[in-house]
Specification:
There is one protein chain. With 227 residues, the protein is an alpha/beta fold. α5 crosses α6 and α6 packs across α7. The chain is globular, with a radius of gyration of 17 Å. The relative contact order is 0.18.
Length: 227
């Protein structure tokens, strides 16, 4: 009963003022929305440029997203309370947060969409940073497909300027793919999986935004496309 109420309030929030706010502040062009599976567990993996990225993607992806967000955001009551209410997962960045990984796996076991930014933090240059291993740890253990997503333009979102001139944003959604499922991961498998995820995202970005993955955008053979 409580879950149904929270789900109702989530969609009510998104379909009303949240969507209206995004339309007022941004002009978003989306490619590949048909690649989003309509049901089942899914890991959304995107590059990260601005705090506006989660709301933009939340209003772009036609499924409820359970975001993994840095612990510091939960320390702010104005954000922490609604984040917890809507199922966001607190994570300590750049360290082995086993509790966060367990909650992420539990969300996927329930058939949910888990939102992750593999870079771990926002890019200050607009180009892709080195990927962190979190996504490549969760995906093989759960067997959940990964949905690569690239966006740009959100780095220009500025309030109150956007009240007068909307920011142009591009979102590209790739085809979901699987990493080989296993519960006993080696460091090399995690490194290869992380590279695969980041290269999939890089392939969706314009060349000048691929950052450290500028010259390596061909998928490795360990991954398979999800049908």
């Amino acid at each position: 009963m409580i879950d149904r109420l929270i789900t109702f309030l989530y969609w009510l929030n998104q379909r009303t003022w949240s969507t209206l706010l995004m339309r007022m502040l941004t002009r978003t062009v989306v490619q590949g929305r048909e690649n989003v599976p309509r049901e089942g567990p899914l890991i959304l993996a995107s590059n990260h440029l601005n705090n506006a990225d989660p709301p933009v993607l939340t209003n772009t992806i036609p499924r409820r997203i359970f975001w993994m967000a840095k612990k510091e955001l939960f320390d702010n009551p104005a954000l922490g309370i609604p984040f917890r209410f809507f199922g966001y997962i607190s994570v300590r960045r750049f360290e082995a947060d086993l509790g966060a990984l367990r909650r992420a796996q539990e969300a996927l076991a329930r058939g949910r969409v888990l939102g992750m930014f593999p870079e771990g933090t926002r890019s200050r240059t607009g180009g892709l940073k080195e990927g962190e291993p979190g996504t490549a740890l969760v995906a093989p253990r759960t067997g959940a497909p990964i949905l690569p997503v690239a966006l740009w333009g959100t780095e220009n979102v500025t309030i109150p300027r956007d009240l007068v001139r909307r920011t142009h944003i591009q979102v590209r959604i790739g085809r979901p793919f699987h990493l080989t499922r296993t519960r006993r991961l080696t460091k090399q498998q995690v490194a290869d999986g992380t590279r695969e995820i980041m290269e999939r995202i890089a392939a969706l970005l314009p060349e000048d935004r691929r950052g450290v993955y500028q010259t390596s955008t061909s998928p490795v053979t360990s991954a398979t496309v999800a049908e």
